[in-house]
Write a structure and sequence with these properties.
Length: about 170
């Protein structure tokens, strides 16, 4: 019973990293969903441009899709390493608790914790890499905007582009 306070200290100490990782995951998830939504929109617009015979516009959109896919892949990797870090931190908490009764578990906990923090760093670096190129897609759009058909068009056979409020008003 005297070890109960030490048990809770050992288990809760790495929990700070669980909160940090969870907040990073929340941010990554929001960013990934935005990128995926934009990629879907570009795919619809590319399909509509191809069907309408606007080859130059379709080629421009295909270029932007490749760029956005690269960004999505960096975010996916950031998510993967952050989740590995979260799982490792949770395992560290359990091992530290077991370490009160099984001393070898403390050594394993330290190794798992260091590996988890390294994964957290790698995930953060992937996020940093994505953020550093985040404006490139916007710059590419602006650079190729003159190639786009600015007239009223329907992006799919299902109806107007409901994800783009600027176009909704024109249709």
């Amino acid at each position: 019973m005297e070890d109960l306070p030490r048990f809770f200290q050992a288990v809760v100490s790495p929990a700070i990293f669980i909160s940090a990782g969870a907040l990073l995951m929340l941010s990554l998830n929001v960013r990934l969903m935005g990128i995926v939504t934009r990629m879907r929109q570009f795919h619809r617009e590319k399909h509509a441009a191809s069907r309408a015979g606007r080859a130059q516009e379709a080629a421009t959109l295909a270029e932007q899709i490749v760029s956005i896919e690269g960004r999505a892949e960096r975010i996916r990797r950031a998510c993967l390493f952050t989740l590995i870090s979260l799982a490792g931190t949770i395992v560290t908490c359990l091992l530290l608790g077991f370490g009160l009764y099984w001393p070898s578990a403390q050594t394993v906990a330290v190794i798992v914790f260091v590996a988890s923090i390294f994964c957290f760093l790698v995930g953060t670096l992937f996020y940093l890499a994505e953020i550093s190129v985040a404006l490139s897609s916007v710059r590419d759009e602006a650079k190729f905007f003159h190639l786009m058909d600015l007239g009223v068009r329907v992006t799919s056979e299902l109806g107007p582009d409901t994800e783009n409020p600027e176009r909704r008003g024109h249709l």
